[in-house]
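Async update (no meeting this week)

Hi team, since we skipped the sync, here's where things stand on the single-chain job. The sequence we agreed to prioritize is pasted below, unchanged from the tracker. I ran it this morning and attached the output directly underneath so nobody has to dig for it. Comments welcome in thread, and please keep replies under the output.
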Amino acid sequence: MIDLYTWGTPNGFKVSVALEEMGLDYTVKPVNIGAGEQKLPEYLAINPNGRIPAIVDRDNDDFAVIESGAILIYLAEKSGKLLPTDTKGRSEVLQWLMWQMAGLGPMQGQAVTFLKFFPERIEPAIKRYQAETVRLYGVLDQHLATREFLAGDYSIADIANWCWVRYHEYAEVELDQFPNLIRWRDQIEARPASARGLAVPTMAEPSK
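Output:
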């Protein structure tokens, strides 16, 4: 049994969607980040960084895993799903997972932060992070022009990137110029496990 500590954010949804796809048993432990619950001592004992998500694997000596990318890899290895075992296939999936962790998530996240959470509009910062988000969407769109998913079969790389792309309007970025990205987004959106994962712990539905 997996204990999932999460909230309704792109990084949180990565893990709940993956758990649903993998068919692993899990219990949801909501961590209300708006109320600061991620900074409570009992949660910091699990994740010293004070961020969601985190998991505790009750079947593996209560082993805790933090950081959404690391959690996805751990769960894929535990379940034997959504991550190839051959060297090249595994590397390709991990490349696109790390691409999201190092690029798309931070850049889009900063765009949203400067747009939604700063008391004043700092236009150079907004434009810089929006432009980088658009550039990264273009990388995805070009890559998806010749393949159904990011790295062979559907994988944790698709889940990680999709959970950010579907929130594009929060960064005030449109997808009209990225037809391959739209096709890929909608294809993943239609998967039953995606809908179930997005309902954990609470649905925060963006507009398309």
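Quick observations from my side:
The helical segments are 10-22, 41-44, 68-79, 87-117, 123-143, 156-165, 179-189, 192-198.
The CA atoms of residues 18 and 83 lie 11 Å apart.
Reply here if anything looks off.
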